[in-house]
Amino acid sequence: MKRIIYTAVALIICASVFGIADYFNAKKQGILVNYTDDVQTTEAVIPEKKNEITAVKEEIITDTKKEFKKDAKPAKKIAKTKVKDVHYTGIIPNLAITEKTKNPVIEKISLMDMLQAKTTDVNNDSTLQVDNKRRINMEMFSRAPIREKKLKARK
Amino acid sequence: MINSRQLTLQLTVRYFIAALFWIPVVFFSLLLVRNTIPYFSFSQEFSFIQERAVLFARSIYKYSFYTHIFAGMVCISTALIQFSTLIIKKRKRIHIWSGRIYVMVVLLLGAPTGLYMSFFAKGSYWERILFMFMAVYWFYTTMQGFTTILKKNVLAHKIWMIRSYSMAMTAVTFRVYYILFYYFGMDLLHNYEISLWISVLGNMLVAEFLIFRKSRTYLKTFLT
């Protein structure tokens, strides 16, 4: 039984020696993980979604412009009295709204992620604010599980 | 003079308090064991591994980690049956063998790997020092518990094993506090540090309180 204790003490000494050596070695090489810069933020910016939204808008705008040019005659009939200039910007949003209902491309803007993350739209520039209400589940009772969720959300 | 009704009431209250203590302990211990099992797929997908990718590139750290979580699983599982008076009285062999496994795993696997990993632990210097203290204290208390039972000193063995178990249980209580503070909206790093300190110091205080109660009842036996 004494052998076990001696072995255990030797292991502890080895662990501390190796630990100190590796720690200073890692510090020299600068590969120590710095966790302190990991500040939790309540705002999550989704640039991809923003791009999608703007791309769709641009698409619609350009399409409508083209259509407007193509179908100049009926357009003139409709907006003869109101708009003389074809490039009048005030008319574009209305056309965009009508196109939104027709164009299935808009369905690509999926807000499922936002709904899953319990997010609410704050600004028009697609900056989302995450709700402070947090959910708990069994999987969290592990090593760094909350961070894992955060990474998934980032992806 | 206590009558039988009062005695029954006292026993009921005692069992109820014991159940209040042990049901969450057993539940959270088994939950931790269950949630540790996926790590043995040796996948790199876990965020714990991802954020320590540089450290996991070193084989010594990687092996230490897997050894440590294996040791933790075994310790928590075996320790659950160690405090049962029913097993100690009726099935002493189970107590002896699970105790041996616990001691071997702590002394040879859990504490040395924990001490090595504490140098790279998350948090400031104080958290690293706390982890080192935990590893050394866990090792020392387990060793004392082992040597005292070899000398047939059962009371001292009980006391040291309560202290040892309190350190093993910091893994469980830490996660309970961590999730609790997370739920109340505390930011992650502060939550981590506070939960760590509360779990270690809290467990030590609870252990000392239990020892104090036990020794008080033991001293009372001399008076009667």
Secondary structure blueprint with pairings:
The complex is a heterodimer of chains A (155) and B (224).
Chain A lengths: L1 H28 L13 E3 L1 H24 L1 H7 L13 H11 L9 H5 L2 E3 L5 E4 L14 H10 L1
Antiparallel strand pairs in A: 1-3, 2-3
Helix pairs in contact in A: 2-4
Chain B lengths: L3 H33 L10 H4 L2 H4 L2 H21 L5 H6 L1 H27 L6 H26 L3 H15 L1 H14 L4 H36 L1
Helix pairs in contact in B: 1-4, 1-9, 4-6, 6-7, 7-8, 8-10, 9-10
Domain count of chain A: 2
Q: What is the global morphology of chain B?
A: globular
Helical content of chain A stands at: 40-55%
Report how far apart the termini of chain A are.
53 Å
Q: β content of chain B, as a range?
A: under 5%
**Count of beta strands of chain A:** 3
Q: Encode the helix/strand succession of chain B as letters.
A: HHHHHHHHHH
Kindly describe this structure.
The complex is a heterodimer of chains A (155) and B (224). By secondary structure, chain A is mainly alpha-helical. Helices cover 55% and strands 6% of the residues of chain A. Chain A is built from six helices and three strands; from the N terminus they run αβααααββα. Chain A has a three-stranded antiparallel sheet. In chain A, a hairpin with a 5-residue loop joins strand 2 and strand 3. Mean pLDDT of chain A is 59; it is low at 37-57, 105-111 and 116-124. Chain B has 224 residues and is mainly alpha-helical. Chain B has a domain at 11-164. The longest helix of chain B has 36 residues, at 188-223. The two termini of chain B are 14 Å apart. Classes of the chains: A mainly alpha (155), B mainly alpha (224). Chain A binds chain B through residues 1, 4-5, 7-8, 11-12, 14-16, 18-20, 22-23, 26, 31-33, 35-36, 38-40, 132, 134, 136, 138-148, 151, and chain B through 28, 31-32, 35-36, 39, 46-48, 50-52, 54-55, 58, 60-61, 69, 104, 107-108, 111-113, 115-120, 122-124, 135-136, 139, 143, 146-147, 150, 175, 178-179, 182-183, 185, 187-189.
